[in-house]
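Could you join me in thinking about how sequence relates to backbone shape in a protein? To get us started, please write out a protein record for me. Would you write everything just below, so we can both look at the same thing?
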Amino acid sequence: MDWDNLIFNIGVFIAGIFVLDYGADTFIDHTVIVGRSLGVSQTIIALLTAGADRTPLALGNLMGSSISNVLGAFSLGLLFHPTRIEFDRSAKIYAAALLAVTTLFVLLAFFNQLNKIVGGFLIALFVLYVVSIFYAIYRGVAAAPGLSDSDSDAESIDDVVDSVTEATPLIEPQSGQTPGRSTRSLLYHISRLFLGIVALSLAGYLLSHSAVSIADSLHLSGTVFGLTIVSFATTLPEKLIAVLSGSRGHVNLMAATTAGSNIFLLTLCAGVVALAGSTRNQSDTFVLFDLITVWMSSLVFFLVVILGLGRVAGVILLAAYLAFLALEFTVYRR
């Protein structure tokens, strides 16, 4: 074993954790402020930006990341949420959309239909998804309704800004203008939002590549590694976002990050993998257990959002994720 290489990559992995913490904190704070400044639901802002840091390595990692986003990340958000949970209309719509997309993907994969034609269709579906978000913003269909119970603690944008910037104000009110409404301030927060996305992308890159090297050093199975270790590492941004947004009461941001990331994975990323012809030997890439778990996780996510389930659901989902990891390393190991 190359101990020098192993120790170096462990150090890179730890450094990626710190970059991840900064990126997630910046992303959440400025997503909330931008959404409130524009009068648009934070769910829509997160749906538009979720998935920007996703770079799946293969079909196994793609499915593993989808499972990890729901059973691993979303469950943590539910556990850390301090009060009763109530998701807005936008979160419910896109939870249903995720279930439909997941069902389509699972059927295509099960019948070995992830070819280049289907790949093009999935990419077109992703484009339609993005267009639907812009349309929702334009028409105001998904504009933030009355604040939910979880969001009522921050009754105005001033409260949000004060909570985010106790020491150094992020918004500099100009005379005659409402704080947070000026063009300068809005552009500043948008730029900070995308800085958070860049930091999350960098963190995902560091975490995934260092995890790959660590797994190679430890001689782990490539497919199981993609479904478990890599998918866990590359969804750490979603996990930290879920914990922070859940603990701060932003349940719609938490749900939007999960739905947006998985729709991104199962449309654009799956389409690219299919176009690249990387799914010919699918029997070596996944088993039926993987597909069932992907679909069941989306179904449970849909039910949790529709019914507004809380910590008990979080415990069940987290336990299911640990069981999934255990089965991948034992019963379903390649």
Observations:
- Residues 68 and 232 are 6 Å apart (CA to CA).
